[in-house]
Design brief:
single chain
């Protein structure tokens, strides 16, 4: 009897593990399909990208770019008149402040560049991490919403998480835990995804926070419309 119960327990555990693996595989497939299809569809659009940077809670700059894909398939960004002009102080204090400002601007530049290395996530890299066993599943709402965690996505020790609506088969958001130069200089950013009428998915709002530097960068994408060459 005890042997029978033990055998049933083992079989039940194997079934649960198999079901979990099947769900991970299915979710990876949803992510890959969305990333690949949306990447191609976005090439037919143009939109406005607004980047706002704050230090210690104070807004320092706001920059707007018109974005579209060129005939070579590369993303083009053209600065618009919506950008905030940079104010400079004079004198010795101005120079000291200027040096600090340059250091901070360089850090913010690196932070924005870091964001771009994760957006959009690479479908093949997602597949490879899954194949390497660096993926874990978290059920947020049974049968409706799940989150997949990917370890070492871009660099050792980082983490990328993708939240999926399994019913609509779309990406809801992405969370990233990484660093800029020093592993102790942790930064986190959250990406909220949205969907256009033709089911093209895009990162609507990206918010990065670097607590050590007290820096916050928010990138918003809006005003999507078919590019002039596509009309």
């Amino acid at each position: 009897m005890f042997l029978t119960l033990a055998l049933i327990t083992v079989i039940g555990t194997v079934k649960i593990v198999a079901q979990g693996q099947a769900e991970v595989k299915e979710t990876v497939g949803i992510i890959k399909t969305n990333l690949i299809e949306s990447k191609e569809k976005l090439k037919k659009y143009e939109w406005i990208e607004t980047t706002t940077t704050s230090v210690k809670g104070e807004e320092k700059s706001k920059k707007q770019n018109q974005c579209y894909y060129g005939v070579d398939g590369k993303l083009v960004k053209v600065e618009t008149g919506g950008s905030t002009p940079v104010k400079k102080k004079g004198g010795i204090k101005g120079k000291i402040a200027g040096n600090k400002k340059e250091d901070m601007e360089e850090y913010i530049k690196k932070s924005i560049e870091k964001i771009q290395t994760y957006l959009p996530p690479d479908a093949e890299k997602i597949q490879q991490l899954y194949a390497d066993g660096k993926t874990s599943l978290h059920v947020l709402e049974p049968g409706k919403k799940v989150k997949l965690d990917f370890v070492d996505y871009n660099q050792k020790g980082d983490g990328l998480s993708v939240t999926i609506d399994k019913v609509r088969k779309i990406i809801l958001g992405i969370d990233v835990n990484t660093y800029i130069d020093d592993p102790d200089d942790k930064v986190i950013f959250n990406i909220k995804y949205n969907t256009l009428p033709d089911k093209t998915q895009y990162p609507e709002t990206t918010s990065l926070e670097a607590s050590k530097k007290k820096v916050k960068v928010v990138i918003g994408n809006s005003g999507y419309k078919k590019a002039a060459t596509q009309m």
